[in-house]
Specification:
The protein is an alpha+beta fold. Helices cover about 25% and strands about 25% of the residues. The chain has 11 helices and 24 strands. Strand 18 and strand 19 form a beta hairpin. The N terminus is likely disordered.
């Protein structure tokens, strides 16, 4: 399978629209109506939301393709890179017909399809004789399509396309249809049963990589047009399959001994794909083993299903479990988790936390089951995330767990004053705040949303929408991982609010000072205030 083909040149930006002035990215045209009908688009003009100038997605067409880019404001603020522009990834046989901006509420109907994933930008695509589909586009230009049936897949699934062009398709069907495979005639892959459904990685080359969702069967390297299986990794020796946004997938294969372990890197952008191998697990080096041992020593059970926790994931959990404070009478978070375990009459050797990593559509959650079983933090993602995003995800979700545990051990309720302050901050009172998320809102709580500072994930909604628990989890993440930016934002907001002799900015500052003290006293140790 190894070849020496020259890899394709990196994608370049398209510059048909003007670089400056009307119709450029910095001055996009405002459609006369929302939605914008694709057939009515100019081929030399960028378009933006007609209702929200802050929406971070702009679009244009060359008459055949639709190209997407962050708005100039996002680029100038260095929150998003300007190039390469992204081509809308439309399923085979479908045609994009309408562009919809500012679709923040799921459950709404566009065309004959129901919006499942809220997003700042949604595209309606149609195919004669088939169900309408909706492609949502995040502020990072990640594209997502959730379907009930598509291309012969009858049990539903999701397609996620990253900005780098790598696509992950998750289907609940256990057989690969001809249409989804991109083949011209049925071949060996169409006869394979992939237990629990399948995952397909595609990056524009002649071959795709398939694996079952259960992780129990082999990984197959498949030629698209014929369905021929040109490479196979045995399910009995697979340890992890780690996809990257650049079209490369690392397949880690266990040997007879640790010294025989190998990592096979499959480059799906080359045609045919380049496959290289190195000794050992590239994702499971010394740093990984060290951090994992630290976490397990705290009494944490670790489960990995087809994916591996990053060093940043493990390091952040270790930090949280070793931080000391006086929250709710417990000197640290670990003590609270141990007390919760003991209260449920578990054995001392039982875990205080289950930490799980798995492959799937991007999602993470921190749960304390109502039946009193062990708290559970799980992280699911289609591709390797950045170190910043990993740490922020762990910190946010662990805060949810800690809140639930400490509320259960004490009064069972969030402190009333924290709820009161949150309600004040949630009102659109502080109109001097910038709307860097592009939501069109002016919630004071946005200062405490890590999406403002991390540059990772879909920032269209932000976390602290209308829930004090989400607000607290985001605030803790900002105060521990992004405190210089949080401090600067609060200081700037204070100055903006007090301009002209007003006091609204100072009022906001006092509220955020109170938030810090309340969270530090009740949930997570934050230490001395930084503002």
């Amino acid at each position: 399978m190894v070849n020496t083909a020259i890899p394709p040149a990196p994608p370049v930006a398209h510059h048909s629209p003007p670089k400056t002035g009307a119709g450029s990215r910095s001055s996009p045209k405002v459609p006369a109506a929302d939605p914008l009908v694709v057939s009515a688009m100019n081929t030399d003009t960028w378009f933006r939301s007609p209702s929200n100038a802050e929406n971070p997605v702009v679009a244009w067409t060359d008459g055949t393709n639709i190209f997407l880019s962050p708005s100039q404001k996002q680029i100038d603020a260095k929150r998003r890179p300007a190039t390469p522009e992204v081509v809308l990834n439309v399923p085979a046989g479908y045609v994009a017909t309408e562009l919809h901006w500012d679709q923040f509420k799921g459950g709404s109907t566009i065309g004959k399809a129901v919006l499942i994933n809220p997003a700042p930008f949604v595209v309606l695509v149609k195919k004669k004789g088939a169900d309408d589909q909706l492609i949502t586009v995040s502020t990072t230009l990640e594209q997502k399509l959730s379907f009930m049936s598509l291309g012969g897949a009858t049990h539903g699934g999701t397609i996620v396309t990253m900005r780098g062009g790598t696509e992950m398709l998750i289907a609940n069907d256990e057989k690969v249809s001809l249409e989804i495979s991109g083949g011209t005639a049925k071949g060996p892959i169409h006869a394979v049963k992939l237990k629990g459904g399948f995952i397909r990685y595609h990056a524009g080359g002649t071959h795709d990589l398939y694996m079952s969702r259960s992780g129990a069967t082999a990984v197959f390297l498949v030629e698209r047009s014929t369905g021929a299986i040109d490479g196979r990794f045995s399910g009995k020796t697979l340890d992890a399959v780690l996809a990257k946004t650049d079209g490369k997938v690392d397949v880690e294969e266990k040997g007879a001994t640790a010294a025989d372990n190998k990592t096979h890197t499959v480059d799906l952008k080359t045609s045919p794909p380049t496959v290289t191998a190195v000794q050992g697990f590239t994702s499971g080096g010394t740093a990984y083993q060290t951090e994992r041992a630290k976490v397990e020593a705290h009494g944490v059970k670790i489960t990995e299903k087809g994916a591996r926790l990053g060093v940043e994931d493990l390091s952040e959990v270790d930090k949280i479990l070793t931080e000391s404070g006086t929250a709710a009478g417990f000197v640290d978070t670990k003590a609270a988790l141990e007390a919760y375990r003991d209260r449920k009459k578990a054995k001392p050797m039982d875990p205080i936390l289950v930490l799980e990593k798995l492959v799937g559509v991007e999602y993470a959650g921190g749960q304390v089951p109502s039946d009193g079983s062990t708290p559970h933090l799980f992280i699911q993602e289609p591709f390797e995330a950045t170190a910043t995003n990993r740490a922020a995800t762990v910190r946010h979700e662990m805060t949810h767990i800690v809140m639930d545990v400490k509320d259960n051990l004490s009064s069972g309720k969030i402190p009333k004053r924290l709820e009161t302050v949150f309600k004040i901050l949630s009102k659109p009172t502080f109109s001097f705040l910038p709307d860097v998320e592009g939501t069109g809102s002016t919630r004071g709580t946005e200062l405490a949303d890590e999406s403002r500072y991390s540059g990772a994930g879909d920032t269209a909604m932000g976390h602290p929408e209308d829930n004090v628990s989400e607000f607290t989890a985001s605030f803790v993440t900002c105060a521990t991982l992004f405190w210089p930016s949080l401090t600067a934002s609060i200081t700037n907001a204070q100055q903006a609010g007090d301009q002209g002799g007003g006091t609204k900015g100072t009022e906001l500052l006092k509220l955020y000072q109170e938030v810090w003290d309340l969270i530090d006293a009740n949930y997570m140790p934050l230490g001395p205030r930084l503002y």
